[in-house]
Design a protein that fits this description.
2 domains, 10 helices, Glucose Oxidase, domain 1, Rossmann fold, 10-stranded mixed β-sheet, binds glutamine, about 375 residues, alpha/beta, 19 strands
């Protein structure tokens, strides 16, 4: 790894004129996107490859990133999906028998523009007080005025369908189980096609740990593109339909809300994150853009049905508006940080969803029980 003095200069500029100068730790080039921050201490690899970060420049609040390298087992998709990456300091050493490459080499290999050496605390305080902002990260243009102009011209997230950039074009049967490093019982990880309830997963940019968890529950899992219409989904004869996470604003993904609306009541449905927002929209609720969102592995959520608090992994910048819920939807989970909606249940049909990530990766496993709830719902609805 090059010494800090040998790393080329890089700059991050925000649309409001703030500019942060640092050093490049990734590929040469320039990217734009919404600048957000994640408070996880670990999980940078899962964050880099989570397709929900499409269109975003992610800042890690934890000050040193890269310490445990990059491991082939910890991918959440086929490669980085975000726009750019910001850290306080890239670790000079990587120490992990599971890793096969360093963070910097991985970023360069995949063309990710990334910066270190900026005051990430100042950047995060800026975004927290002023709200999420568009930005530009560059190693090729270091002129402040030019960068700020480019940040202002960046399209942002609102009103764009980013799902189509990360959703697959073909269906596949999923057989990869949880890696043995994340299995709660520590057992091996041979490919496995479950013989339990058949789940058709609508992939809007799905994190791979979700189908791994479903297979871990014994489910047979068929992953289909996010644009798959209802009749094609039903032709797979599913016992349940899963709605995945995914990037950007849920409102423009109208083809998915139409599909979901016609599936509600026909099959048990479980949605995570974007899937939760799309289910809520399909049933008549509204979504809105949050000031700076929830991203981290330490977000407290209360399950209102049990009163229990779970610490959750989250990544979202939009949310379901509690005041817009139709009578058919009830709030089941609340954020204890800001009282926003974290889960809903349909009163009239077997369908529920959460705004956070029970598949963890990275993050705590407190919410894994939601996969059990989905399994129980499918078993209950199955014809005798
Ligand atoms: N992880 C997700 O599915 C994110 C959902 C949506 N893109 C948001 O930012 O709110």
């Amino acid at each position: 790894m090059p010494a800090p003095s040998e790393k080329p200069p890089a700059k991050l500029a925000l649309e409001d004129g703030a500019v942060f100068a640092g050093r490049s730790i990734g590929a040469p080039g320039e990217c734009d996107g919404e600048v957000c921050f994640n408070t996880s201490m670990t999980g940078y690899q899962e964050i880099l490859t989570d397709p929900s970060y499409r269109g975003q420049i992610v800042t890690m609040t934890y000050p040193q990133i890269g310490n445990y390298g990059v491991c082939p087992d910890d991918m959440e998709s086929g490669g980085p999906k975000l726009s750019g990456f910001v850290v306080r300091e890239e670790s000079r050493v990587r120490s992990n028998f599971r890793s096969n490459t360093s963070l910097g080499d991985y970023l360069r290999e995949h063309g990710v523009v990334a910066i270190e050496g900026i005051d990430t605390r100042a950047l995060v305080r800026h975004i927290r007080s002023k709200g999420a902002m568009r930005g530009v990260l560059s190693t090729t243009d270091l002129d402040d005025a030019s960068l700020v102009a480019k940040a202002k011209a960046s399209p942002g997230l609102v009103g764009r369908d980013l799902v189509q950039e990360v959703s697959p074009t073909d269906s596949q049967v999923w057989s990869e189980p949880l890696s043995r490093w994340t299995r709660l019982d520590g057992s091996g990880a041979e490919p496995f096609e479950g013989d339990g309830p058949h789940v058709v997963a609508l992939d809007f940019g799905m994190k791979w740990n979700i189908p791994r968890c479903l297979v871990g529950q014994g489910c047979r899992v068929t992953v289909v593109p996010g644009k798959t219409p209802a009749d094609e989904i039903l032709a797979h004869k599913p016992d349940g339909v899963f709605l995945s996470n995914g990037p950007g604003d849920p409102e423009p993904v109208a083809y998915a809300t139409d599909t979901i609306r016609s599936l509600v009541g026909q099959k048990p449905i479980f949605g995570i994150c974007l899937g939760h927002q799309l289910l809520s929209l399909a049933l008549g609720a509204k979504t809105y853009k949050m000031k700076f969102g929830h991203r981290g592995a330490n977000q407290p959520v209360q399950d209102l049905s049990t009163g229990k608090v779970e610490i959750t992994s989250q990544n979202h910048g939009f949310a379901v508006d509690a005041d817009s819920l139709p009578d058919s939807l009830e709030v089941t989970h609340l954020s204890l940080n800001d009282q926003t909606v974290e889960g809903v249940n349909c009163r009239t049909a077997p369908a529920f969803s959460v705004q956070y990530h029970p598949e963890a990766s990275a993050g705590p496993h407190d919410s894994h029980y939601l996969f059990d709830r989905f399994l129980a719902m499918m078993r209950q609805q199955a014809p005798a």
